[in-house]
Amino acid sequence: MKGVFILLFCLTFVQAGLPFESAIPVLEAQSIGRDPRIVNGNPAPAGRFPYQVWLLGQGAVGHACGGSLITYDWILTAAHCVTGITRCYVTMGTINRNQPEFIGQSTHFIAHPQYNRDNLNNDVGLILLESPAPKNSPNIKPIDLPNPGRFGETFVNKRATVSGFGTTVDSNLYGPSEVLNWIDVTVISNDECANVFGPFLVIDSTICAKGADDLSQGPCFGDSGGPLTIQENGTSLQIGVASFVSSNGCSSGRPAGYARISYYVEWINGITSSGQRLGASILSVMGLLIVHVHSRNRS
């Protein structure tokens, strides 16, 4: 999805001497002049994605991203979406971003303490809303996350869904779509994904997927931080956060990379349940402590 927002940075990850494709943050996808949208997407019916949010960041840089409501106080998104901004406006409860049911605000952002902007590892971020989202709307509902017991589950071959707002015309003259769109994708193994991007980008905490009905389908600019979900027992479960795409283009047929939520759910739960009105600096320290304990327990 393309927008008129200043870019945070424009990275192309080069793995010198290795036969792997480079990747770029989904946020930067329009900079390569390719097809910057959820390709061949379907307009979303009202109420189908009540967890979907649209983020507009302000600061030294400004940018647009996707995200998901995980509690009525907290938004889950990509770390590269919250880096470098000082205030964020969160549109939710709508399939038309110009007709929001609720607009939240925040100045409290937490990027994962091990986020690496050079390879987008640990590309997970949290946003604490200044005021909770309304709890009495059918169009605004938090999405479920995997429980910690599913840490090692791969979800390979699962049919999943990506949703977001994006440009439907490949031109710099147009901004993000007014309408929420979605596509289905198929989760692939990390080995298959690493054959494309290499082990520098694709690690245990990465999950990859490719178009389920057409390989040209996938996330692109403006979809950064948006949810990758599956259906279980009639409800949506978020298993990924949109992170990177091939530098050959969003519609190149290559898989897209996401942060694997089951890997981060302990970190997420530790912060979001630690006291919802604490200052961002205190929460950031808690995040460091939580990830240190988590890493030690996994070693």
pLDDT averaged residue by residue: 80
Strand content: 25-35%
The total beta strand count reads 15
Structural class: alpha+beta
Uncertain runs with pLDDT below 50, 5 residues or more? 1-18, 30-37, 169-173, 276-282, 284-299
Give the proportion of residues in helices: 10-25%
Largest sheet: 7 strands, antiparallel
Shape: globular
Radius of gyration, taken over Cα atoms and rounded to an integer in Å? 17 Å
Q: What is the number of helices?
A: 4
Distance between the termini: 39 Å
What oligomerization state is this entry in?
A: single chain
The sequence of SSEs as H and E is EEEEEHEEEEEEHEEEEHH
Q: Within the largest sheet, what's the order of strands?
A: 7-6-3-4-5-9-8
Keywords:
single chain, 299 residues, alpha+beta, seven-stranded antiparallel sheet, six-stranded antiparallel beta barrel, 4 helices, 15 strands, 14% helix, 30% strand, disordered C terminus
Question: What can you see in these coordinates?
Answer:
The chain has 299 residues and is an alpha+beta fold. Helix content is 14%, strand content 30%. It has four helices and 15 strands. The protein has helices at residues 79-82, 190-197, 261-272, 280-298, and strands at 23-25, 42-43, 52-59, 64-69, 74-77, 85-92, 102-106, 108-111, 125-128, 159-165, 180-188, 206-211, 227-232, 235-246, 256-260. The strands form two sheets. The chain has a seven-stranded antiparallel sheet with strand order 7-6-3-4-5-9-8. Strands 10-11-12-15-14-13 form a six-stranded antiparallel β-barrel. β3 and β4 form a beta hairpin. α3 (261-272) packs across α4 (280-298). The longest helix has 19 residues, at 280-298. The chain is globular and about 45 Å long. The relative contact order is 0.22. The model is unreliable at 1-18, 30-37, 169-173, 276-282 and 284-299 (pLDDT under 50).
